[in-house]
Structure formats: structure tokens, C-alpha cells
């Protein structure tokens, strides 16, 4: 096997191969032949699946500077070195089916990265720097131990496919709704109790899968015309009160739950809506409210409201007017049988609440 490996690498160097396949070679350490002398400066794709590697060399980027794709699926890698961030041209990195317990912040330096696969590891958290991957299109985090997603994930403006199935998520940041290129979101088999009010508002988001989140009983009404998976949701317990069950897990910022009888919007909410308009609609160069005037928590809420009215798109901050439509009473009842979830329209006033129609 050693002789065969040596010959394979020797031939790749001699003939200046751009692709090198070292899958199923029973490798315990990274082959030193790849790192000798000038390395393989012309190599663009390296396949090392199904080996027994536990780490990567610190000088990987120095010896293989033109790598575009690196496939390390099904090894025993526990940690990746900080030097991984030096692979400036890397576009695809597959570290799925390893033993990763953490991800170094330097992963955020891979500015050319488009596809990152980290499924079937032991990750409990992600570094905020993952939000620096502005060209990232695919992120697969399925089958890990994640309890949350970084708020800065919304900076991955090119993200189209996000998979976080089989983790320990109880909520997802509402900033996720600002990923306007996101087409498919899969969060099956987590511990979700509530979804962001604006989830599905983007026209690009067409596929949402939240199957087997047994405590999840409410889906934003924006998802009504999307392809959704919700089998096994809303099957735990239940008091019989559809509205209260659908609102379990509301964000802490919600101070008031309005009804059709509430004809006056609270002053605090009106003030927030006014400040939001000033911040987002003021003419260029007009600074009526400098950022340092307001505390960070308030600035964050102004930048990322709770959601937008499902009837008129008015931004909402401290109050919601919910209207519930049990899925079993909609035309989708025949498609989604093993679920008791409801669609929830979140409105900004009693007027919008009264006039909202799920059918559009």
C-alpha cells in the first residue's frame, strides 16, 4: 500500500495533475510526500475520503496553495489547524463524518469558500467568524450537538442551502430571515418550539423542513405557499387551546399580545416604529439619531425587528396580533397528516388582524 501511495503521488508530481485521489488508503497521517520540497502547487482537488486521519498539517496551504476543493469525508479528524485559513482559493471543504468538537475562528478567512460540509461531527457551537464567508452557498451542519446558530450567520449573503437537521436547537435567530438568497432550510429533528415571525417572507425561500420537532406547534403564515415538511410536529402534550399552544416560545421582546378588541397600539410600539422609519428612510447624510445615543440592544432591535406584519409588512417590535389557522382546517390537511401544527399570521394591528386572509 505504501509503495502504491508513493507511486500515485510521484506520478501526480511528474505529470502535474490537478486532481489527486487518495480515498480508501488506510492513511493515519497526512502523506509527507505531498509536503516535500515545493509540494504540489498545481493541485486543485484533493480527495482523501475514508481514511483514518486525525489532523491536518500546519503547512498545508504553503505546500498546496492552489487547492480549490478538499474532501476529507469519513476520517477521524478532531481538530483542524488555524492555518486552514490560508487556503485562499478554497471553494469546497468537506469535513463530514469526522470527530470535530470545535471549529477554529480562522475558518472565516476562507473568503472564496462556497460549500462547507460539517455533518456528522460533535460540534457544540460555531465561531461567529463563519459569518465572514460572504460567498458561501451551501452549509451542512446536520447531526451535531449545536444548541444555537451564530447571529452573524445572516452575513453569509450568498447562502442558498442551510441544513441543521438532528441537532439540539431550541430556536433560530430571526436574523436568518435576512438571508435573501436562501432557497432551502432544513431543521428537522431538533428541539424547536418557535420559528421567527418573518420566516418564509423571502420569495427565494421555497423549501422549509422542520419535521419531528415535537414541541413546535406554530408555523408563520408566510410558509403556507411554500414546500414544507412538518411531519411529527406538535404531537407532544397539548392543552387544547390552539392559540396559546401556537405561541409557545415567543421571543422575550414580545411584551403584548394584541387581539381584535385592541384598537390602540401601545405608545412604546409606536415610538419604535417611528425610530425605525427615521433610521431606515432618512435621506443620505442626515444623522438625526447617532448610533451612540441608543443602547446596543435597542439598535439591534431597530435593525432586526421581531418581524413584519403578514398583512401590510409594517415592522413590529414589542407587540403582535396573532391569527391562527389550524393546518387540519386548510387544503394542506391531506398532505400533512401526522401533525397538529397551525399557521400563525402575525399582524401589526387589530385592523390587519381582522382583514388577514390565509388564501391571499
TrEMBL record:
InterPro entries with a match to the protein in the record:
Leu-rich_rpt, Leu-rich_rpt_4, Leu-rich_rpt_typical-subtyp, LRR_dom_sf, LRR_domain-containing
Q: Which UniProt keywords apply?
A: Leucine-rich repeat, Repeat
Keyword match Acyltransferase: no
Q: Report if keyword Repeat is assigned.
A: yes
Give the record's GO CC terms: cytoplasm
Q: SUPFAM superfamilies, per this entry?
A: L domain-like
Kindly provide the name given to this protein in its UniProt entry: Leucine rich repeat containing 28
Organism in which the protein naturally occurs: Cyprinodon variegatus
Lineage of the species this protein comes from: Eukaryota, Metazoa, Chordata, Craniata, Vertebrata
Amino acid at each position: 500500500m505504501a509503495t502504491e501511495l508513493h507511486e500515485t503521488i510521484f506520478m501526480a508530481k511528474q505529470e502535474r495533475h490537478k486532481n489527486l485521489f487518495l480515498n480508501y488508503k488506510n492513511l493515519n497521517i497526512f502523506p509527507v510526500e505531498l509536503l516535500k520540497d515545493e509540494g504540489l502547487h498545481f493541485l486543485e482537488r484533493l480527495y482523501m475520503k475514508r481514511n483514518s486521519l486525525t489532523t491536518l498539517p500546519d503547512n498545508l496551504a504553503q505546500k498546496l496553495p492552489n487547492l480549490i476543493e478538499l474532501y476529507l469525508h469519513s476520517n477521524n479528524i478532531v481538530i483542524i489547524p488555524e492555518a486552514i485559513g490560508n487556503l485562499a482559493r478554497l471553494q469546497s471543504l468537506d469535513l463530514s463524518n469526522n470527530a470535530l468538537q470545535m471549529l477554529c475562528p480562522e475558518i472565516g478567512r476562507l473568503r472564496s469558500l462556497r460549500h462547507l460540509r460539517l455533518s456528522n461531527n460533535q460540534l457544540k457551537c460555531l465561531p461567529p467568524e463563519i459569518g465572514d464567508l460572504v460567498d458561501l452557498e451551501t452549509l451542512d451542519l446536520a447531526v451535531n450537538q449545536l444548541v444555537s446558530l451564530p447571529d452573524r450567520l445572516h452575513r453569509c449573503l450568498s447562502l442558498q442551502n442551510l441544513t441543521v437537521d438532528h441537532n439540539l436547537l431550541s430556536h433560530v435567530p430571526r436574523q436568518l430571515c435576512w438571508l435573501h438568497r436562501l432557497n432551502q432550510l432544513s431543521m428537522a429533528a431538533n428541539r424547536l418550539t418557535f420559528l421567527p415571525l418573518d420566516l418564509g417572507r423571502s420569495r427565494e425561500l421555497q423549501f422549509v423542513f422542520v419535521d419531528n420537532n415535537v414541541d413546535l406547534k406554530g408555523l408563520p403564515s408566510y410558509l403556507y405557499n411554500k414546500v414544507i415538511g412538518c411531519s411529527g410536529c406538535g404531537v407532544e402534550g397539548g392543552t387544547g387551546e390552539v392559540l396559546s399552544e401556537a405561541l409557545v416560545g415567543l421571543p422575550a421582546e414580545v411584551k403584548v399580545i394584541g387581539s381584535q378588541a385592541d384598537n390602540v397600539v401601545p405608545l412604546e410600539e409606536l415610538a419604535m416604529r417611528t425610530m425605525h422609519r427615521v433610521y431606515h428612510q432618512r435621506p443620505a447624510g442626515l444623522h438625526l439619531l447617532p448610533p451612540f445615543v441608543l443602547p446596543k440592544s435597542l439598535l439591534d432591535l431597530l435593525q432586526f425587528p421581531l418581524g413584519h406584519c403578514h398583512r401590510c409588512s409594517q415592522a413590529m417590535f414589542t407587540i403582535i396580533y396573532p391569527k391562527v389557522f389550524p393546518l387540519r382546517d386548510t387544503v394542506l390537511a391531506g398532505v400533512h397528516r401526522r401533525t397538529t401544527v397551525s399557521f400563525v399570521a402575525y399582524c401589526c394591528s387589530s385592523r390587519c388582524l381582522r382583514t388577514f386572509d390565509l388564501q391571499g
